[in-house]
Every structure is written in C-alpha cells, then in structure tokens.
C-alpha cells in the first residue's frame, strides 16, 4: 500500500468515527507520525495533502525537517516524545508544538529558549494514564500545578493549547477508553478552574486506538504505522 492510499484510508476512518460518535465533521485532525521514516516518506505524505507531522526524537526531527522545510516551510512539526532539557533549544527552533511537556522544569526551559529566539510556541501537557508508559504528569494535582505555573504569567512565550496522553498498550478496550476519558475530564475541570485556557486540543489516539479516542473526545490523533508502515528500529 502507498502512503497516499494509507492516508486516504486513515482519513476516511477518522471521518467515519466522527460521524458515528456524533462529533462534528473535521473536528479531529491527523498528526502523521513519521519517526524512523525518511524525509522522502514525509514528502510523499505532503504531496498527498498531509501537513502536520509528529516526531519523537529531536535529533532525527531536526535532520529531517531542516531539509523538508527548505521546500515545504508550511509543514507543521510537533515533538511528541519525551524531551530532555538539553534538547529543548533545538526542539523550539524546529517545532510548532511540543506535545510532551511533562514537568514544570521543562516548561521553564521551553520558555527560556523561546525567549532567546523571540518565538512563541504551543505546548500540550502530557498526562500519564498508562502503567506501561513512563512520561506525563502523574496525577491531576501535578497537572494543575503546571497549569497554575503558566496561568501565573511565568511563560509569555508558551501557549498552553491542550492535553496529550498515550493509552496503555493492551487489547483491553475498557482500559484504553478509561485513559482517554480521564484526560477529557481533566481538560473539562481545568477549563472550569482556569477559564483563560480553552484547551482546544486533546491529542489522543494512535494507529491501534484512534477510533476509540475519537469516541472519547480526541481532537487530534497521532498515527504512524497505519500511514507509513512498520518502523525498523534496528537501522
Ligand atoms: C510513535 C508514536 C505514535 C504513533 O504510533 P503508531 O502506533 O505507529 O501509530 C503516537 N504517539 C506517540 C507519542 C508516539 O511515540
């Protein structure tokens, strides 16, 4: 199957799931996760009309997207993997959004590096909802502390755009659903407590579970394998 065909299929599935869940058409965006796939694959996806991409390693993303941005400056890049503080400088240079903000220290570093280059960047706060995942704010209280930190005006170069999570890797649909509904609930509670944050983005759902995520309120699904095929980690 070609990348173009895969993209068509995934987009059809997204539209179908929106409808089935009673969601507005086009309320769910597709982030194509291109990690471990070459720049050529990204270019093929761009040609097929895809404009948002996700990468989880800064080094790899920088190498790939410096090239891609030369001919396609409009291609949007989101960093979705766990981010070490010493990679933030590079990350904010190349990315439009950092979806894996998972600690206040990291948010401080994002602010510091963005201020230096006079750039404003979007972030999502990652919520830890799966036993088998390591990253994300551990609970509602720690999440709210981060929101409060931003609300206090400490980060003028950071736009809090929403929440992100990774569901557990399991066949247990109830567990997956719980992970997504928890994050949706957290977002509702934050909007009530902090009306200045509308949190338009809930980044939830991957190749295996994006249909469930859409039923549970996702506004952005991060899909890699179903678009680009299996990743070869040995290379
Ligand atoms: C790799 C990755 C994805 C995409 O996973 P697929 O199963 O290939 O769709 C989504 N989100 C994050 C955070 C990832 O690291």
Distance between the termini: 22 Å
CA-atom Rg in angstroms: 17 Å
What is the averaged pLDDT score?
97
Question: What is the CATH topology descriptor?
Answer: TIM Barrel
Main beta-sheet strand count, sense and barrel state: 8 strands, parallel
β-strand amount: 15-25%
Number of domains: 1
Ions and ligands:
pyridoxal-5'-phosphate
Family: Belongs to the pyridoxal phosphate-binding protein YggS/PROSC family.
Domain Alanine racemase N-terminal: 6-231
Function: Pyridoxal 5'-phosphate (PLP)-binding protein, which is involved in PLP homeostasis.
GO molecular function: pyridoxal phosphate binding
Q: What does this protein structure show overall?
A:
- Pyridoxal 5'-phosphate (PLP)-binding protein, which is involved in PLP homeostasis.
- Belongs to the pyridoxal phosphate-binding protein YggS/PROSC family.
- With 235 residues, this protein is of the alpha/beta class.
- The chain has a single domain (3-228), classed as Alpha-Beta Barrel (TIM Barrel), CATH 3.20.20.
- Helices cover 44% and strands 17% of the residues.
- The chain has 9 helices and 8 strands.
- It has helices at 3-20, 39-47, 58-71, 88-94, 104-116, 140-151, 173-193, 210-215, 225-228, and strands at 29-33, 52-55, 76-79, 97-101, 121-127, 158-165, 201-203, 220-223.
- Strands 7-6-5-4-3-2-1-8 form an 8-stranded parallel β-sheet.
- The longest helix has 21 residues, at 173-193.
- The mean pLDDT is 97.
- Bound molecules: pyridoxal-5'-phosphate.
- Pyridoxal-5'-phosphate (PLP) binds next to strand 8 and helix 9.
């Amino acid at each position: 199957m070609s990348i173009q065909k895969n993209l068509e299929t995934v987009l059809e599935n997204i539209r179908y799931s929106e409808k089935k869940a009673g969601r507005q058409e086009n309320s769910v965006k597709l982030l194509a996760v291109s990690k471990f796939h070459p720049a050529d694959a990204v270019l093929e996806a761009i040609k097929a009309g895809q404009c948002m991409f996700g990468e989880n390693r800064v080094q790899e993303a920088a190498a790939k997207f410096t090239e891609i941005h030369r001919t396609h400056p409009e291609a949007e890049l989101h960093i979705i993997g766990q981010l070490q503080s010493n990679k933030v400088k590079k990350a904010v240079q190349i990315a439009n959004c950092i979806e894996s903000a998972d600690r206040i220290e990291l948010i401080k570093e994002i602010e510091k590096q963005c201020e230096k280059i006079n750039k404003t960047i979007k972030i999502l706060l990652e919520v830890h909802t799966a036993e088998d995942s390591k990253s994300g704010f551990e609970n509602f209280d720690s999440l709210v502390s981060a929101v409060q930190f931003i609300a206090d005006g400490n980060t003028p170069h950071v736009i809090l755009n929403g929440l992100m999570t990774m569901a557990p890797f399991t066949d247990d649909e109830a567990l997956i659903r719980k992970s997504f509904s928890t994050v949706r609930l957290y977002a509702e509670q934050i909007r009530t407590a902090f009306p200045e944050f509308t949190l338009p983005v809930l980044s939830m759902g991957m190749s295996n579970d994006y249909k469930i995520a859409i039923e549970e309120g996702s506004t952005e699904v991060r899909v890699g394998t179903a678009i680009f095929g299996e990743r070869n980690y040995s290379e």
